[in-house]
Amino acid sequence: MSSTSTETVRFDTKIAVLLREDLEPWQRLNVTAFLVSGLGPTIPEVIGEPYEDADGVGYLPMFRQPVLVFEGTKETLKAAHARALSRALPRAVFTSDLFATGNDRDNRAAVRAVRTQELDVVGLAVHGPRNAVDKVLKGARMHP
Questions:
Q1: How would you write 52-113 as a 3-class SS string?
Q2: What is the enclosing helix (H) or strand (E) of 41?
Q3: What's the CA gap between 69 and 87, in Å, rounded?
């Protein structure tokens, strides 16, 4: 599709990030970046083609569809996490413990140390069919 097209593209899938509403602004940005970083390598079809400007300078490819960001209460996150698991959707999780770690090894160890039902989820990214993702996000609202 050319960049001048006015045709709306509707994707069959959805990429969504759900953040806990009590996060500080810097935490929201940090958590979102970490969460979506797991989707591209795991689900290559979400990545578009590389970019190039009019001078031929190349840029890395990005997601081929929008990433929708939502927010909700601690309870909303807990319920969404459970629904994402029950639907076996590809997901990334960010727990409150990760704010105290400084590297990937320690991040993975922090998540591994806590049972699934006890995770203090502050962020969740999911990808899947639109209706399945919508059901996971039940009770969440679009991030302002």
A1: ECCCCCEECCCECCCEEEEEECHHHHHHHHHHHHHCCCCEEEEEHHHHHCCCHHHHHHHHHC
A2: helix 39-42
A3: 20
CB 80 within 8 A of CB 137: yes
Give dist(CA 132, CA 138) in Å, integer.
10
Asked whether 63 and 137 are in contact (CB, 8 A), the reply is: no
User: How many CB atoms sit inside 10 A of residue 19's CB?
Assistant: 24
**How many residues are given for the chain?**
144
Bridge partners (DSSP) listed for residue 121? 95
Each residue's pLDDT expressed in tens, for the chain with a length of 144 residues: 445 566 777 889 999 999 999 999 999 999 999 999 999 889 999 999 999 999 999 999 999 999 999 999 999 999 999 999 999 999 999 999 999 998 999 999 999 999 999 999 999 999 999 999 999 999 998 888
Query: Whole-prediction pTM value?
Result: 0.89
Residues 6+ positions from 14 with CB-CB distance below 8 Å: 65, 68, 126, 127, 128, 129, 130, 133, 134
